[in-house]
Amino acid sequence: MQNHFELFGLEPGYALESERLERAYRGIQAKIHPDRYAQAGDAERRASMQWTTRVNEAYRTLKDPVERARYLLELNGVDVAFETNTAMPAEFLGRQLELREDLALAQGEKDAGALGRLRTALRRDKDELMGALAQTLDTRRDYAAAAGLVRKLKFLERFDAEIDAALETMDE
Amino acid sequence: MALLQISEPGQSPAPHQQRRAVGIDLGTTNSLVATVRNGVATVLPDAQGRPLLPSIVRYAPDGKIEVGYPAQAHQTEDPKNTIVSVKRFMGRGRKDVPYIENLPYDFADAPGMLQLCTVAGRKSPVEVSAEILKVLRTRAEMSLGGDLSGAVITVPAYFDDAQRQATKDAATLAGINVLRLLNEPTAAAIAYGLENAAEGTYAVFDLGGGTFDISILKLSRGVFEVLATNGNAALGGDDFDQRLMCWALEKANLPPLDARDLRLLHVKAREAKEALTYHGEAPLTARLSSGEFVDLSLSTETFCEITQHLVQKTLGPTRKALRDAGLEPGDIKGVVMVGGATRMPHIQRAAREFFRRDPLNNLDPDKVVALGAAMQANVLAGNQPTGGDWLLLDVIPLSLGVETIGGLVERIIPRNSTIPTARAQEFTTFKDGQTAMSFHVVQGERELVSDCRSLARFELRGIPPMTAGAGRVRVTFQVDADGLLSVAAQEKTTGVEASITVKPSYGLTDSDIERMLRDSFEHARDDMQARVLHESQVDGERLADGVHAALQSDGGLLEAAHRAEIERLLEALRARLGGEDHRAIKQATDALNRATEDFASRRMDANVRKALAGQRIADLER
Fold first, then answer.
1. What are the residues whose beta carbons fall under 8 Å from the beta carbon of A131, sequence distance 6 or more?
2. Do A109 and A45 sit in the same domain of this protein?
3. What ipTM was reported for this prediction?
4. Residue B540 near residue B577, CB atoms below 8 Å
5. Domains of chain B by range and CATH?
6. H or E stretch at B221
7. Does the pLDDT of residue B384 top 90, yes or no?
8. Tens-digit pLDDT profile for residues B79-88
9. d(CA B336, CA B188)
10. Do the Cβ atoms of B597 and A41 come within 8 Å?
């Protein structure tokens, strides 16, 4: 079976042209989507659903910065171990603690502006990490180091989701 | 009538080859049916030229069933048997319906979905909705001059699996072949996008009679990609009427009213609300059964004030949808307003203030959904000339998961996943010698099972006894292009395989549906046998045509022996199609389906390769 990159005719790599991925995805969807087979027999409708499901899954994986890295490492035989490996450098953890205190404060005061600033800072950190990941995965091919970076990125994503949740409770 | 039709050769199939396909907007307040004629989407009116069908069904004492305007005429005199806004009950239990105490019906609780007690007996909301769909189907068949080949039926984007399944069941009951369930805001986006050749990121703000949806879509070169959707499946124009009615009760200092007076006041409240769209002040008057006269005057200011909290309720989901799409209000190029309730000035104002731009109101908010659905039905039926079609990429609105220890939800498919989609999760046995594992499937965003919608419970039996943790059960969630879920569970550590596939159903089993179908045919004095035969012929013909075309274009993918086998089965099916034996037709159809499974998969694979080859050329040309 083709891997997700081959499916879209792309070279495997962390730094990928999102426009090319999107074009390939849409090009394939145009040929296999269930809407193209609404008048077909059961066998073809089933095949269309299975293939589209697979293409959607591949696209979702490659589009997402954490999932793409996790998948690349998996292709290279490295397990990111999100669940079991939770060791983080002290400096990184210190920064996370600080950010979480800021979040609790902003949440307590229902300060949407402060949450927005927190998110901007977080996005900057994420961009930096993604740059480092591209370097480590594509150029240096240091998969052990990359796994550490992905775990950090996942950590930041969770924090991003917490900001979302805080904003959501403010909406209600 | 046109005496002469001029069409370019090869542009579109001749009219007699066109399949009769329609789009149906099954609305809370009104329903519509539309089709594409000579390339233009049009709403099909009734014999009196009225495009809307009020979504009202009355079970009359003489056994007749009235639908639409005739039912509407009786709604205040016979409120218990005249069902309005039945859409709010689809896939819902009693406890799910807001203000149920203000509704004039006698409800009965049934597992999964409530029922209504009428003079004609207990009715499921699915049966009531089917009556509306039957009228629309007849209207379309009269207008198009023959049986429908299929319909696209719209549902609110925020409808959960229970509500979608109920809608599809209603269509089945009405004898309609459902080509697709289509989300209402997506249907509106098709109509708007094609009409205006729109490109960019748009929001569709859809406030109907009973539901609110907000969808964020990216429109780009014929692809309509839903980035995120959110909403409230129990918020609509009806709630504004309810609020207004409560205000009137309070203002006029009225005692608790009976069913007739409640309905009367509801109707009068709606009329006053509608009048306010064009005037600054509206009367709200009613003569109650006690002889008491309610004489109130409602100003726009008062109306806005007492319903402002409802307007606010649209903004939370709007913010969430934008966040899920990773966008800010300023990234939105246009806000398309859909649904009759968006005519209210303070809704317009709220949308304008939130997105900081004037909302787009250039399409009829009552018709745009039906028109978009008709366009999609035309494409799905294969009536569109090649190259003139477009592609929809839609999402599921609410996360799907299973219950885990402590009444918590383990999410398996997150909301806003592009459909069709599938995800699997492994669960291990937790007791020595455990031979069964039970699952509870839920939908919703909350962490506690009790705050989510329960979709199905099932048990996987026959797991070989093992030590705790050694038995591994893989649970797979598959959501199809209609947004409907099926769940499969399989134990695979040992040679023995225990597996089960469930489709959630909401109080309605297949045999319930069959019984309802039989009942409805008895009433219509139709011939069930004839319908079964007709359906098997349509299915068989569709498959035969499809396989024939596939052999013509991609026969080269097959080895000679395999091809000969398919050709033999194709001929066998064709030989049966002319006959009267629906079982023989079904058998021949199934045999051809089985024999072409591998061929179908190869064709998909070849299609992916073709798409990529095209892409490479396009990339080189850049």
1. none
2. no
3. 0.91
4. yes
5. 15-197+363-387 (3.30.420.40), 237-311 (3.90.640.10), 400-510 (2.60.34.10), 527-608 (1.20.1270.10)
6. none
7. no
8. 999 999 999 9
9. 8
10. no
pLDDT for B279 equals 87
The pLDDT assigned to B8 comes to 39
Q: Do A60 and B417 touch (CB under 8 A)?
A: yes
A103 is a domain residue: yes
Q: List for chain B the helix, strand, coil content (%; round to 5).
A: 40, 25, 35
Residue ending a domain, choose from A13, A45, A63: A63
Whole-number Å distance between alpha carbons of B277 and B598: 59
Instruction: Answer for the pair B282, B298: CB distance below 8 angstroms, yes or no.
Output: yes
User: Considering Cα of B580, then B584, then B585, then B588, what sign does the dihedral take?
Assistant: negative
B253: alpha, beta or left, given left = phi > 0 and alpha = psi -120 to 50?
left
Domain containing A17 equals: 4-63
Reported confidence tier of residue B7, pLDDT bands at 50, 70, 90 = very low
Chain mean position to CA B151: 11
What are residue B460's DSSP bridge partners? B437
User: Which one of B604, B616, B622 makes the best mutation probe of the A interface by having the most chain A beta carbons within 10 Å?
Assistant: B604
CA–centroid distance for A28 within its chain: 22
Task: Count the domains in chain A.
Answer: 2
Letter for the amino acid at A133?
Answer: L
Nearest chain A Cα distance for residue B423, angstroms: 9
- Mean pLDDT, chain B, rounded, equals 88
Measured CA angle at B420 (ends A151, B506), to 5 deg: 110
CB contacts, 8 Å: B319 with chain A: 167, 171
When pLDDT is cut at 50, 70 and 90, the band that residue B509 belongs to is low
Please report which confidence band the pLDDT of residue B471 belongs to, taking 50, 70 and 90 as the band edges: confident
Q: Is A22 part of a structural domain of the chain?
A: yes
Backbone angles phi, psi at B348, to 5 degrees: -55, -45
Distance, in Å, from the CA atom of B320 to the CA atom of A112, rounded to the nearest integer, reads: 14
Least confident stretch, A14-28, A91-105, B114-128: A91-105
The answer to whether the beta carbons of residues B363 and B192 sit under 8 Å apart is yes
Secondary structure of B511-526 in HEC code, one letter for each residue: HHHHHHHHHHHHHHCC
**Which chain B residues contact residue A170 at CB under 8 A?**
none
Q: Which residue has 């999100």 as its token pair?
A: A82
CATH classification of the domain holding A31: 1.10.287.110
Q: Which helix (H) or strand (E) holds A37?
A: none
Cα gap A133→A119, rounded to integer Å: 21
